[in-house]
What we know:
Oligomer: homodimer
Largest sheet of chain A: 5 strands, parallel
Mean pLDDT of chain A: 88
CATH superfamily of the largest domain in chain A: NAD(P)-binding Rossmann-like Domain
CATH class of the largest domain in chain A: Alpha Beta
Structural class of chain A: alpha/beta
Strand order of the largest sheet of chain A: 4-3-7-8-9
Largest interface: A-B, 80 and 80 residues
Distance between the termini of chain A: 19 Å
Helix content of chain A: 40-55%
Number of helices of chain A: 10
Number of strands of chain A: 10
CATH topology of the largest domain in chain A: Rossmann fold
Shape of chain A: globular
Low-confidence stretches of chain A: 6-12
Number of domains of chain A: 2
Amino acid sequence: MPNERKKKAMDRKLAPRxxxxxxxLYLRQLEAFQAAGQxxxxxxxxxxxxxxxxxxxxxxxxxxxxxxxxxIGYQIDxxxxxxRKALGTDRLWPIALVGLGNLGRALIRYREFExxxxxxxxxxxxxxxxxxxxxxxxxxxxxxALPEAVKTLGLSIAALTVPSDVAQDVVNKLVSSGIRGIxxxxxxxxxxxxxxxxxxxxxxxxxEQLVYKxxxxxxxxxxxx
Amino acid sequence: MPNERKKKAMDRKLAPRxxxxxxxLYLRQLEAFQAAGQxxxxxxxxxxxxxxxxxxxxxxxxxxxxxxxxxIGYQIDxxxxxxRKALGTDRLWPIALVGLGNLGRALIRYREFExxxxxxxxxxxxxxxxxxxxxxxxxxxxxxALPEAVKTLGLSIAALTVPSDVAQDVVNKLVSSGIRGIxxxxxxxxxxxxxxxxxxxxxxxxxEQLVYKxxxxxxxxxxxx
Lengths: 225, 225
């Protein structure tokens, strides 16, 4: 199955999922090297920090047409631009935040999004007591206002932070409003049409995985992607 | 490399990482079936909801000694108990929450943890203005109080929600205090001894991965594990 999936991805000129996951890690690490004053970096430096093999890093980057020069390495600026283009984050993505509970409020104030090409453009909730209030400069809108906002703000992505029991209903509204990608924080399996993308972040799952590692003393650093 | 890693895992009687990741998904889905009034479930039902192959589900569960009966399927109670035992979540895990920013506050109020065998047992911050205040029934403690708390509360896991620039320093303190597993929300690569487990949840990375899927119209539901 993994091989079939990999083959299918290559046929469509898509990178395998694991490579795409590593691209984000490379991007973060390049930012760190840049913040430390470097303008060039070798595949070996990247590999060491991320605990990957040098050959793996070079292979991943070659997939996107990037080749380091012996003794010089990669120009960090160029490599960042190439990776952002490959990921699709070479432009700003406005995001609809849907669900203004504790997690929603935390995401509104999360500074990292803007640094990486994302901006919460509008905030929605279906609680009449919240609609019309202002939270961190956002006027909370009714979910009924979504179709209009999708058009006027050019939204295609939503972060979903509503309770589990209403998540599927809200997802149906998001999709019918024109949203095509959902970052889902509700711990529930969502059903969507095949052309809609969903990535679910379930923090209890991450803790379970961590407990497994601790219990089996397998150790190591990993990323949830 | 994946094959080497897989082989190594099997040698140590550890399940491959992908299987462990799916165990959490099975557990969530079993809860959903149970909530819907079912006491038994077939591998096929699980496979369909999670968009996996039936054979994959049966193989994963067989890894942990669980076998469904033809025409009867799996007893949900038994299967849940076996998966929790395999993951190590058949007991309650007290957690240290370190860093009381917006995300920390959201995690304190996150109800799902308790449902899955986790309980935030103590809250730490190194801001003197926060230490001593009470947030959602937790008295915020100085990070200096960690070694003592690790002993008295039997903590081995921490959720880290501090700013990136202090994350590595705090991690060093966590590890020297006896913490063995860290769920890291700071978007930075952490360095730890090989026996310490870290899982990093970087929400910008999840958004980048989502943008890639949307841009390439690859669609589908996936989980960040």
